[in-house]
């Protein structure tokens, strides 16, 4: 993906998360609470958070930061640097050495936060749809 598109996605995500949080706060102040709508907005928060984290990681891989300067010519066991590996899914910058060892330069926390946020977004979306459909079938339902 080109950098301007990823930059636009990052900007939209960073701006959408506070807007969704504000929407949740306003919804909680007004009665009656629509649980399906609250879950849907929470799903948006986690989805936009996952998008922002992925875009951040993508820029870290693409622009490199301190990588590949962090790669040593030899690792601690004396093996020569064999290659550099860049992956965009999952995000990965790695120094590959001749003895098969690798040194990662994209934090595991970026991938973990992305997977947890994306997973929560999917679960909350399913819960919101379930509650919405259930409320349609119950007379006088408020979800």
Description:
Helices cover 60% and strands 13% of the residues. It is of the alpha+beta class and 143 residues long. The two termini are 39 Å apart. The relative contact order is 0.15.
Short descriptors:
single chain, 3 strands, elongated
Topology of this protein?
Layout: H1 3-29, H2 35-63, E1 81-88, E2 91-97, E3 102-104, H3 108-137
Antiparallel strand pairs: 1-2, 2-3
Helix pairs in contact: 1-2, 2-3
Task: Return Rg in Å.
Answer: 21 Å
What is the H/E string?
HHEEEH
Cα end-to-end separation: 39 Å
Structural class: alpha+beta
Query: What is the count of β-strands?
Result: 3
Uncertain parts: none
Biggest β-sheet: strands ordered side by side in the sheet: 1-2-3
Shape: elongated
Main β-sheet: number of strands, strand sense, barrel status?
A: 3 strands, antiparallel
The helix count comes to 3
Query: What's the rounded overall pLDDT mean?
Result: 85
| Strand fraction | 5-15%
In short:
The protein is built from three helices and three strands.
């Amino acid at each position: 993906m080109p950098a301007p598109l990823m930059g636009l996605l990052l900007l939209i995500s960073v701006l959408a998360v506070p807007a969704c949080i504000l929407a949740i706060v306003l919804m909680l102040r007004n009665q009656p609470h629509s649980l399906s709508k609250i879950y849907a907005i929470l799903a948006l928060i986690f989805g936009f958070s996952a998008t922002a984290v992925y875009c951040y990681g993508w820029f870290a891989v693409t622009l490199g930061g301190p990588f590949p300067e962090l790669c040593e010519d030899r690792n601690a066991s004396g093996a020569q640097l064999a290659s550099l590996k860049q992956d965009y899914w999952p995000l990965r910058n790695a120094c590959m050495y001749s003895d098969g060892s690798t040194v990662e330069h994209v934090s595991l926390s970026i991938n973990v936060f992305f997977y947890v946020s994306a997973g929560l977004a999917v679960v909350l979306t399913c819960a919101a749809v379930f509650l919405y459909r259930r409320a349609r079938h119950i007379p006088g339902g408020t979800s």
